[in-house]
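[Meeting: bench + compute handoff]

Bench side (C.D.) handed over the final construct sequence. Compute side (W.E.) agreed to return the predicted structure before the next meeting so the bench team could plan truncations. Sequence as handed over:
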Amino acid sequence: MRYFHARHRETGEDQWPLAGDDQDVPGGIDPEIWEITEIERERASHDEFVDGELRLNAASLNAALHAEIDQRAGEFRCRFITDAPGQALTYLRKEDEARRLRSGGLGPFPTIDAEAEATNVPVEELADRIVAQANAWVALGAKIEAARMAAKQAVSTAASEAAKREAAVVDWAALIDAE
């Protein structure tokens, strides 16, 4: 099945979505009278024609811009963290061990002990470094999350397509300067 938009060449009247088989445009639509444009199936039910151009409707545009914001936030985060399978769990484990070690908790501290041995750094010094790094990430991570959510909210509440697109632009680098 193929989907089409038809615009009357004289009156500008729109008809869509129109469905046709895989080989033909919809029956009853004369190409001499109607300008026919094939459209993607997904767009046939979710989007709209505005001034003769197919545009995302508000819900589709919001979804697309929200996904773009999430993607950009993730890319920015990856400048500061290692995005590899299992790495987040390793970092959480190291932070937990480091905080327990610094507060006088009882071991074992297998992750910190292994890293201290491998890097020839005293366990206490390594624990201090890990906690400092975790604390720094919490501050920056919170800023990234706040900017991500604020941008998504601004996109959702913006009244026009242009305003929505503008709201989706986040100056991620400014988050570092704001520290």
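W.E. noted at the follow-up: The first helix runs from residue 41 to 46. C.D. will use this when planning the next construct.
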